Amino acid sequence: MTTNGVAGLLIETHNWGKTVAFWKALGYELEFETDHHSGQLRHPSGGPYLFIAERPEGSPLQLQPVLTVRDAAQFSPPSSGTVVRPFEPQHWDVLELLLADPDGRHFSVQAPLPEGAKKEHHHG
Question: Could you read off the pLDDT of 67-109 as tens digits, one per residue?
Fold first, then answer.
């Protein structure tokens, strides 16, 4: 099974406020914000979402495409890629596989959690 294409971009930043202001100036609108300096923006004309997450000063930053698949069990990574981390449940209620392309760039491949696997998460 192939992917459904690029659903969004993960953009890591050292300054949540400045980065959100930058994307808002380019026409993106904030869809939601978490309580830990991250959130999702989308352009009213469509296209992939942007998920912006603040990281501590000094930590390396990533810009990572997010692809989606309908079923993790049916997805076979291309032989030219490397699975960095197999599908694992994430706190935002998806399964995520980390895939590297032939040049070593990382891509997130996300699939819905299987039925009955969703659980409530509490942020403290």
Answer: 999 999 999 999 999 999 999 998 888 999 999 999 999 999 9
One-letter amino acid at 35 equals D
- How do strand 82-89 and strand 38-42 relate by DSSP bridges? unpaired
Determine the residue type at 6.
V
What is the number of helices (H) and of strands (E) in the chain? 1, 8
Whole-model pTM? 0.83
CB neighbours of 43 closer than 8 A, spacing ≥ 6?
Answer: 27, 28, 29
Question: Cα 111 from chain centroid?
Answer: 11
Residue 71's nearest CA partner among 30, 16, 20, 115 is 115
